[in-house]
Amino acid sequence: MATVRWTRQQSLIVFSLYFRLPFGRFHSRNPDVIQYANLVSRTPSAVAMKLSNIASLDPAITQSGRSGLTGASSADKVMWQEMQQDWAAFSVAMAQAEQELGVDNFTDCVNTASNAETTKLAAVKVRIGQQFFRSAVISAYNQRCCISGLANPKLLVASHIVPWKTDEQNRLNPHNGLALSALHDKAFDLGLITVDEDYRVVVSSQNTDKSDQFYTAAIASFHGKPITLPEKFYPAAQFLAFHREHIFQ
Question: What are the alphabetically sorted keywords of the record (predicted)?
């Protein structure tokens, strides 16, 4: 029996799921995998395999000694490159594919995009991209702050390493993100903390009041401690270097 090829729409749907799920949940028993399998008329095992094949294209996976599976198709590889080259456009494509199959994560955004003027369209694309950026970054860190371990999603931020205003091309690149608590996101944004080349937290010696017990416990105490590295979408070394050089105090 001939293998039925994956359509572009089906592949976009699974790429969207790849953004949202931690690596450890790429299995056929996962309710999300089952839901998306029904959407694309595939078995949960086929979707789980597709996720693992996509993972084999992610350097964060392969460099950590994991390999995913090795059956990524040429179409998967082309789509991976397409994603790397234009995160915003790829995010919109995933959102549109979801809407066409009845997933309402981005329905309002996509409907607006279909009818918007050019200036509004750009804003809608960014909004969709921001939502995928958050999903990708937070899931990569298994929904925990990489500094403190805080696991309350309402208090987590997909923090940009290189600021939004500084690098337009990488605004939506998950490699330019860290999952941080709201407090550590603000400290990172202000340059009170950074991450060194060995992925350890560095706390600025400026503006430090040793009598401030909360600051000491919540921020200063993490100096020298390693961050929890993500399962996918590793923070890029060049982005962290930029933060140390241009933002850290």
Answer: Endonuclease, Hydrolase, Nuclease
pTM of the model: 0.83
Strand partners, 226: 200
Cα 44 → chain centroid = 23
Handedness of CA 235, 241, 242, 246 (dihedral sign): positive
- Structure-block tokens of residue 73: 């198709």
**CA distance linking residue 32 with residue 74, whole number of Å:** 26
DSSP secondary structure letter of residue 64: T
Task: Indicate whether 48 pLDDT > 90.
Answer: yes
**Predicted pLDDT at 70:** 63
CB 146 within 8 A of CB 154: no
H or E segment and range at residue 195 = strand 193-195
Domain residue ranges of the chain, discontinuous segments joined by +: 8-140, 153-246
Count how many residues are written for the chain: 249
| pLDDT reported for residue 60 | 75
